[in-house]
Amino acid sequence: MHMINLQAVSQVIVPGLLNARYLSSVALRKPRGESCKFNISTLDPQRLVTSDFIDIGDKTHITVLYRNVGVIYRRYDLIYPRTTYNVYQPFPPGTHGYLYLHRIPDVHPAASTIRFRICDKDLPPLESFSRGRDLVAPKSMPWQINIWQLMGQYRNENISDCLVLDQVISAEVVQQLHNFESLNKRNTKFRLHSPPILSFRQPFSIMMNQKTSNLRFVGLDNHILWHVKAKTSIMEDLPGEGKLCTMCLDYNPHGRSYKDRIVFRILQIPQELRGKTRYNEGDIMPFRIATNCQPKTPLHPTLLDTLIRQSPSLSSAQSQS
């Protein structure tokens, strides 16, 4: 496990954690293909209005004006293998509905994501939303934009104000992200290529047959970034292309040491592979550092304390005890 205190080093990361180069899944320039532009008033599913309904079916990417100021820009997915020119897969036909902010209960609000809810236009917005379903990406995971990615889009400084005015993210959380960005320093070993893990029960995806995965954790208050290579394989010798599963970190209060109090919990396995893995949905598996991790250092107890502090219910329980 590597750990770095971002206040102790000198150069800014390219030029910050929220910088566009960090956003591997957000395009910096518009790809070839047809796009569409819309204007929406809110990302709060409880305050949706008819004019927030958009149809993005068969489009390769969308540009949405949010509250007349912020811009939400996103493509659907690349077609692999890549060639000299990127070819973008369009959104599926019938992709119409509402963009909304998806908040996971008991997970730090900075880990919130924007998702697309496929809905029926003929129903009132609230009823239509409640009966709808989330758009799924080609790898069977929800299509989504992480808040870190959204705030890091090029020339999108106003998006923070929009989120606060829309009352979907608090000013305190936005300030935490901006403070972390200003303290984030250049170090290629710690460059982030995906949204970091902030708290227990925050879902993330890993390749099922990959023996180890690089996980990155962020302490928003102590400004520390951890880079951990952990053992995550739940299925070896998986034929064909690697499959994704969803898991999270969970807190085990009965662990004998701080190392044993952090565990993986399996959340979702592709339907065709259920029952064929070493761990099934709902199971927990040990959180272990890969033996080839350099340097070979023990899991720092500060990581456990940070995850507890950034997990709402655990933080509340700790403050009351």
Report the span from N to C terminus.
Answer: 31 Å
In one word, what is the shape? globular
Q: Roughly how many Å is the radius of gyration?
A: 20 Å
What would the average pLDDT be, to the nearest integer?
A: 77
What fraction, in percent, of the residue positions are helical? 10-25%
Number of domains: 2
Largest sheet: 5 strands, antiparallel
Strand content: 25-35%
Class derived from helix and strand content: alpha+beta
Compressed to H and E, one letter per element, the order equals: EEEEEEEEEHEEHHHEEEEEEHH
Total helices: the number is: 6
Q: What are the low-pLDDT stretches, counting only 5+ consecutive residues below 50?
A: 6-34, 185-191
Could you give the count of β-strands? 17
Please tell me about this protein's structure.
The structure is a single chain. The chain starts with a strand and ends with a helix. The relative contact order is 0.15. The chain is globular. It is α+β, with helices and mostly antiparallel strands and 321 residues long. 16% of the residues lie in helices and 26% in strands. A hairpin with a 3-residue loop joins strand 4 (61-66) and strand 5. It has two domains: 2-12 and 187-320, no CATH class; 20-172, no CATH class. Strands 3, 8, 9, 10 and 11 form a five-stranded antiparallel beta sheet that branches.
